[in-house]
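Hi support team,

I've been running sequence recovery on a batch of backbones for a student project. Most finish fine, but this one hangs at about 90% for roughly twenty minutes before it completes. I'm not sure whether the input is malformed or the queue is just slow. I've pasted the structure tokens below so you can try to reproduce it. Let me know if you need the job ID as well.

Thanks,
M.K.
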């Protein structure tokens, strides 16, 4: 049996600690790097679909303030407030529901339009009203 050498034991433990730290940091960096690549590709799969259309929501009018609720590029409801004009564009696959609701919080007119691949598919002309809604389905190209 060899005698216990405190200096050798300490140096070996120190090397192991550094080696473990390097391994853990490398694994964390790899997970972060590859996780970001995966997440960015999954963000909006419809954007890369062959059957997707360019969608644009438009709010028009002379109102001093509106509240806009709409289905966004991930098909979740989002809201924005402020005066018109307002636009939001994204890509969506055919058959997907599209919706924009505009509440008039000020004085003036409001209107909305949903455009797919450059063609209006739902329109509410500007009028003095408290609320309007444009609804459509992404058409087949």
């Amino acid at each position: 049996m060899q005698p216990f050498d405190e200096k050798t034991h300490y140096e070996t433990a120190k090397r192991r600690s550094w080696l473990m730290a390097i391994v853990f940091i490398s694994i964390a960096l790899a997970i972060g790097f590859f996780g970001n690549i995966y997440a960015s590709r999954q963000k909006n799969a419809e954007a890369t679909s062959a059957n997707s259309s360019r969608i644009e929501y438009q709010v028009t009018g002379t109102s001093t303030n509106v509240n806009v609720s709409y289905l966004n590029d991930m098909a979740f409801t989002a809201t924005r407030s402020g005066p018109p004009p307002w636009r939001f564009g994204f890509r969506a696959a055919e058959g997907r529901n599209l919706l924009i609701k505009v509440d008039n919080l000020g004085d003036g007119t409001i209107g909305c339009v949903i455009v797919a691949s450059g063609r209006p598919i739902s329109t509410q002309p500007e009028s003095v009203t408290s609320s309007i809604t444009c609804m459509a389905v992404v058409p087949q190209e």
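--
Follow-up from support: It reproduced on our side and the slowdown came from queue contention, not your input. The chain has a mean pLDDT of 85. No action needed from you.
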